[in-house]
């Protein structure tokens, strides 16, 4: 059940999140750790909601390459079957004897035609075989043009190369408590004019009805001129914070989730990039502080950032009980 009167009335609420206020209409977290919405689309025919271009751009690399290899093999199997239906006597230069060898010859002739390699030992004879070979060459050219475009699109697609800490911490800070998470760029695509925003969702009982309420989490520093190192986002828990006077049990019963939105201008892409993630109450750590990620090099002429220490923290006592 959600909490009732424990929520700080001074906390600034979000009015337009697009996530809905009826807590019975959604299940689980709003966003996955990778920033993708935790939503499954149903009720519309697959072909109408399928954006093939976006899907192929967004697929993991191994799935994208598997689709290319599978499509290449499938297309050549189809055309090899067409050549067999036309008749092997319409392919001049065949040396195969057994049916399996003939199919293999037809398959590799199809692959050579599809890629417009054409080694020359086998060539089509007659209108049917020549037409099939010409059609396959056209399909091959179009296919490779599409694949080239997709490869370039995946390669050149703007992306915010940011990793986030696994946990968000409640940390002793300036004599009180602050809520913190850490992020770091993991390539040399440095961002400028970076801005971060935190929104917290909680299930709250109002007038006997359980609702989702969204609150802005004010950051101690919300904008940075450039982001070349790790950045710890700090929300100070004071009289205006929705965390104010809440206990660990209150936070867990409200199924709190903190949504993180980061945007900045990428100098390499010359484009604005956006990154998202979220932390649920199960990923909060009470009484801890992050350990440093960077230190001077041996010559004291530069700085080394250890990306594998992004999640490193040590347990500490909070000045107040939560």
SSE arrangement:
Elements: H1 46-49, H2 52-58, H3 61-86, E1 91-92, H4 99-114, E2 123-124, H5 127-156, E3 162-164, E4 168-173, E5 176-185, E6 191-206, E7 209-217, E8 223-227, E9 231-236, H6 248-253, E10 257-266, E11 271-280, E12 284-286, E13 288-290, E14 294-296, E15 303-305, E16 313-315
Parallel strand pairs: 4-12
Antiparallel strand pairs: 1-2, 3-5, 4-5, 5-9, 6-7, 6-8, 6-10, 10-11, 13-16, 14-15
Helix pairs in contact: 2-5, 3-4, 3-5
Can you characterise this structure?
The protein contains 6 helices and 16 strands. With 322 residues, the chain is of the alpha+beta class. It has 2 domains: 23-40 and 160-315, Immunoglobulin-like (Sandwich); 49-156, Helix Hairpins (Orthogonal Bundle). Strands 3, 4, 5, 9 and 12 form a 5-stranded mixed β-sheet that branches.
Short description:
The protein is an alpha+beta fold. It contains six helices and 16 strands.
* Largest sheet composition: 5 strands, mixed
For the secondary structure, the number of strands is: 16
Give helix % range. Answer: 25-40%
CATH evolutionary superfamily of the largest domain = G protein-activated inward rectifier potassium channel 1
**Poorly predicted runs of 5 or more residues:** none
- According to CATH, what is the topology of the largest domain? Immunoglobulin-like
Averaging pLDDT over every residue, what do you get? 86
The SSE string, one letter per element, is: HHHEHEHEEEEEEEHEEEEEEE
Range of strand content: 25-35%
Overall CATH architecture of the largest domain? Sandwich
């Amino acid at each position: 059940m959600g909490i009732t009167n424990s929520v700080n009335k001074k906390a600034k609420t979000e009015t337009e999140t697009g996530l809905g206020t009826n807590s019975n209409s959604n299940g689980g977290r709003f966003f996955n750790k990778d920033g993708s919405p935790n939503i499954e689309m149903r009720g519309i025919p697959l072909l109408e909601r399928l954006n093939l271009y976006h899907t192929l751009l967004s697929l993991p690399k191994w799935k994208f390459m598997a689709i290319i290899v599978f499509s290449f093999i499938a297309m050549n199997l189809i055309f090899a079957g067409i050549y067999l239906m036309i008749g092997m006597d319409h392919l001049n230069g065949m040396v195969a004897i057994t049916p399996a060898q003939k199919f293999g010859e037809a398959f590799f002739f199809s692959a050579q035609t599809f890629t417009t390699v054409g080694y020359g030992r086998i060539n089509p004879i007659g209108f049917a075989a020549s037409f099939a070979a010409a059609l396959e060459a056209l399909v091959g050219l179009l296919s490779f043009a599409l694949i080239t475009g997709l490869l370039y699109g995946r390669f050149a697609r703007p992306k915010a190369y940011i990793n986030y800490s696994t946990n968000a911490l409640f940390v002793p800070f300036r004599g009180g408590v602050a809520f913190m998470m850490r992020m770091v760029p993991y390539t040399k695509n440095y961002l400028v004019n970076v801005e971060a925003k935190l929104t917290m969702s909680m299930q709250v009982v109002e007038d006997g009805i359980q609702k989702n309420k969204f609150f802005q989490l004010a950051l101690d520093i919300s904008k940075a001129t450039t982001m070349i190192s790790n950045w710890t986002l700090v929300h100070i828990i004071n009289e205006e914070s929705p965390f104010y006077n809440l206990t660990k049990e209150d936070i867990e019963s409200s199924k709190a989730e903190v949504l993180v939105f980061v945007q900045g201008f990428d100098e390499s892409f010359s484009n604005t990039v956006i990154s998202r993630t979220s932390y649920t109450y199960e990923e909060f750590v009470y009484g801890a502080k992050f350990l440093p990620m960077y230190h001077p090099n041996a010559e004291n002429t530069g700085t080394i950032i250890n990306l594998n220490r992004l999640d490193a923290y040590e347990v500490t006592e909070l000045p107040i009980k939560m």
